[in-house]
Amino acid sequence: MATKNKYDRQLRLWGAEGQAALSAAHVLLIGAGPTGTEALKNLVLPGVGEFTVVDGERVGESDVASSFFARECDIGRPRAVVACELLLELNPDVRGQSRVVSPEELFRSEPEYAGSFALVIGAQLDPLSLQTVGEACWKRSVPLVVARTCGLVGSVRLQLRRHEVVESKPENTTWDLRVGDPFQTLEELGRECAGMWESWSSFERGRVPYAVILAAVAERFRRERGVLPETARDKADFRHRITQLGGDLENVQEACENCYRVWTSSSSLESLEVRLSHQDASDVTPLVKVLRGIAKFGRIPIAGPIPDMHADTSQFVALQRAYARAANADAKAVRELVPSEVPDDYVNYVCRHLRDVRIVATRSLADELESPDLEDAADALAESDDPTKLAQTPVLWYVALRAADRFLLKRKRWPSTDPLDVKDLVADLQALSAGKLPWTPDTWDHHAIELARFQNAELHAVASVIAAVAAQEAVKLIAHMYLPINHTFFFNAINASAATFEI
Amino acid sequence: MSAVAGATKANPIDCLLLTPTAFGSESGTLPVGEFSPGDEVKEFLTNECKVLVVGAGGLGCEVLKDLSLMGFGDIHVIDMDTIDVSNLNRQFLFRASDVGQPKASVAAKFINARVAGAKVMPYVGRVQDRDADFYRQFNMVVSGLDNIEARRWLNSMLVSLAEVDDDGDVDPSTVIPMIDGGTEGFKGQARVIVPRFTSCFECSLDSFPPQRTYPLCTIAETPRLPEHCISYAQIILWPKSFPDRKIDTDSPEDMQWIFDQAKERAEAYNISGVTYMKTLGVVKNIIPAVASTNAIISGVCATECFKIATMCSQNLDTYMMYMGSEGVYTHTFRYEKKPDCPVCSGATRDLAVNPNLTLADLIKSLKASDLRLKAPSLAKADSTLYMQKPKALELATRPNLTKTLSELVDDDDEITVTDPVFSGDVALSLKLNFSLDQPTVFGDDDDDDDEVGGKKNAP
After folding, report:
1. Taking Cα atoms as reference points, which of A444, A337, A322 lies closest to residue A390?
2. What is the pTM of this model?
3. pLDDT in tens, A254-307
4. For residues A21 and A43, is the Cβ–Cβ distance under 8 A?
5. Residue ranges of the E2 binding domain (chain B) (predicted)?
6. Using CB atoms, which residue from A9, A68, A450 is nearest to B89?
7. What interface predicted TM-score (ipTM) does this complex get?
8. Fewer beta carbons within 10 angstroms: which end of chain A, N or C?
């Protein structure tokens, strides 16, 4: 064992900052069944700071059969207490407690309770409790993750009033090279390169990092034409100029592959319009303050880091330092334009990741319930023409589940496979989807019977998938890193298909 | 919710197993049988169905929990590893006090104690050390492995167990489905392999790129990144300083040595960013791993096992990928068979070769080709060309290595290749077509690819 850090494998994803946020967070879990306990398990293992479990039920036979955090010997004990005990065994770094009370009752009498948590997870809540919890969280701007398993289907829903992410960590890093719009040192390096190129040997040419080559050729192009390449022809011409520098050199090849950076590396704030629109937000967070400072600064501050480039060590290191210095200078200038209560480190952090800043806001649960918007989800329906696959489209199951919930509210029980129940359910399905889906299956009755078959049961393996997606979203939200879903993830285990949609 | 909701059954799996459905296995796009609800199918699940879990790591721990709580009564688990501190952030069947113990035994013991009715049987050891008779006893195999090599071998074993008669028909009683999961950070995939019916693991080998390496000249002459300095310490300095000993990547002393050397080199070149953590990452090729992704993929795999065992619903046809860092993106699709898959197609591959190529060079080129072989042994219909093992046979066939192909085989000859990446019963046929347009030597003198696909640390 070469490391003593049990968090090593996850620190490689979210770093010390993400871990610090996680270990400072106090999370509330409502609902200690299989779905809820599995979700919390996936937060306790990576080291959430503290949790509270709220549940009013007692361990029954079905819990023992389908939950890892309820044993035969626990039958009759409060689920919240048992779950808390068994979850705490997983990680000595984590603190936890339980409250044995029905969630509906708790949130009706103490709606402010939600306000004391970094995040709330509602697992397997009945429609009424969910409404109460959803409202309490919305009012206090506490992020809510709703997890729900029903037989072979399930969903994760996020309710976020406003969620800021600085490090969204996109799959493909967008390097900020400024080769078409160079800062002073880069411009000078480019000029030197252009001046010396003819006199250099092939060996010397091969030592220059491609960013310098691009800056040099871009400057000459602009001098001759007055603008950077815009048309396809200009761009081809530009590429040709690069190849002419020596197509057999690795750095020149790299320059050629990265030509597009010349016409896409703008420092103009316009490309950040969406993010900067939040400078008008009513909630003046530190991020909003920095964004306002950047708007005054007038252009995108240089990020700093650069990718590896075939080059001589000293030239590459010098270039790397030049970018870092330019980034520091920009961040310092922005610092002067941001109120002093925002710490320097945070200003630097936002400047460095400005391109990746995202702000996410979802609809409220109440809104969705009142006027579901199936358009986005329905688009996905049109993608397949195979009726077998179409019948399993996740959005159809979303509609079906809503109809079943409506049945549950009305009748205080889950529908059975009895033809009268099925007829009722199908009528609801049709009402919910009429005119809102481009296609409805002629097998609605099969969907209805299937849901009745599921008995709203928490099948462990399906609950485990749903819970893990919920926990992953929770970690992303707590760390303020990576992009959360907006707003519903739906999993259909019948054929292992899933979709994310906004409804 | 149970206070208001249905949940009339004491065990949630009964809802599925005892009630008919319009969406049974037979109604899906990858039917594996016809569902008939009732006690019989439940009896099969809890008493007869024998499932092997391969790997007791991040995926394995989850799969064991999921299967036992889905009613599987006869579970077996195999893993060669012992528990490390860095497993504890996700491998929840292990505690700090278990560090150093075999994963399979500790995991089995935990499940047996926690889940009523569970019976998990552990095996400590390598997948490759078990024979066909061992694998033949299972109804299905679910794998959560951290490396490509063991998955290739397991896949080839299960494909070879599916018997095909002279008409090309597969004997269904010999087909053992393999449900395979893999994760990396927030990404993962789950797939169902029904040997001879669907694509197999080998069909998709191209989608698993070989381990990332840095060009030797960059490492030696123009290092720019901390990774280059670390690789220099590992690849160049270590063998010089310790010619008789390989690096023990689990030894803090060895890793500290690499780190110190890398740091010194980085300082000489003004390169920043060499840390102990990064050194571990590069040398051990560490893949980031989190509890949640493992639980997602394992849950999907275990659900597939349940559906395959009971046929109570449709099946994953055949591949689901999950990407969780930019929102959640998933894609479920049929991974098509590779028409010339060396493992499951049975097809003979044509290979254009220069007759003046030596046998040694042919072997090298096979290792570097898309076949990604490790130590190929070659034979013609009537004689052995080169055998890597046993020692005596290796010595006897070694003189052939320096001979040219024209001395050893005729144009259009078919040769049979076996390799330790595949189980013993898998041999691929190559038809050698002589062509003077092909190179006469195989360049790259890179003999040290023993590490490729070697041990990795996720999930």
Report:
1. A444
2. 0.94
3. 999 999 999 987 788 877 765 666 656 677 899 999 998 998 999 999 999 999
4. no
5. 351-433
6. A9
7. 0.95
8. N
